[in-house]
Amino acid sequence: MANITRLKVKVAPGAKQNRIIGWHGDVLKVRVSDQPEKGKANSGVRKLIAEALGIPTRNVSVTVGLTSKNKHVVIIGLSGSEVKSKIDDHAADHKKDR
Description:
The chain is of the alpha+beta class. The chain has a single domain, classed as YggU-like (Conserved Hypothetical Protein Mth637, Chain: A). The mean pLDDT is 92. It is 32% helix and 35% strand. The chain has a five-stranded mixed beta sheet with strand order 2-3-1-5-4, with helices on one face.
């Protein structure tokens, strides 16, 4: 059986660039350049998280909050600890780039 991880994500759409900000408690904060219309921001969130985790976009789904800044995301194929570790590494790498 594949690992399934659920995340709470707070999204800031319409940002200058796509970026994972980091954890605020158990909520992952992200910024996406896509606008919150017709599912564009949801698509941006999926792509950003998939890229950070090194998995296909099809393995990331927004399941709750399709029209809200507060979303629940399901990730298939990685455990919770793997997700947290990879996101922490990704966020740290991108802070160095600033």
